[in-house]
Write a structure and sequence with these properties.
mainly alpha, 166 residues, two-stranded parallel ribbon
Length: 166
């Protein structure tokens, strides 16, 4: 069973000794430092609902902290095996490279006029095939279909269909 991530014991004792206004301010500082609302809520004695801690944090007055804030636990990446007792972080998807954007836009404009009866060696058919190849290549490198569609100036659904049929 995975243990819940909690604040250090000395920090919990310090929090329990603070008056209400400073208590809320300290919670805000912990949250700003990178501690999750869930970790803070589970650490309190008695544990509080995460929604309550969120309310306290959002309405707290920001005050200078005279005592150092403990460092939050390390974050794991979703692309590798999660570190024990570490919250998961969202991975960042790659974007369409800047040097390819202009070419994708040009091909997209030509591909819009492509029809099934178009000659296979016409500029429109060649542009359509090249756009499909580029879209597939980018998609397989992790670029989301929505990002490719945005650059091409088409809907997500149209790009998803192109990638699926490619």
């Amino acid at each position: 069973m995975i243990q819940k991530i909690k604040l250090p014991d000395d920090e919990v004792r310090f929090l329990s000794s603070l008056p209400l206004g400073l208590f809320h301010s300290r919670l805000r500082s912990l949250w700003d430092a990178g501690w999750s609302l869930k970790s803070i809520a589970d650490s309190l004695n008695p544990p509080s609902p995460k929604s309550t801690v969120h309310f306290w944090v959002k309405n707290a007055h920001i005050a200078e902290q005279r005592r150092s804030i403990p460092a939050p636990p390390p974050k794991s990446l979703t692309v590798s095996a999660p570190i024990a007792n570490a919250p998961r972080a969202r991975s960042i998807s790659p974007k369409v490279p800047e040097d390819m954007k202009q070419r994708i836009q040009e091909l997209s404009l030509l591909s819009r006029r492509y029809r099934a009866k178009t000659s296979p060696d016409s500029p429109l058919a060649l542009a359509n095939r090249e756009l499909t190849e580029i879209a597939l290549s980018l998609y397989h490198r992790g670029v989301p279909a929505a990002e490719i569609a945005k650059v091409a100036g088409v809907t997500y659904r149209a790009m998803a269909r192109r990638i699926a049929n490619g």
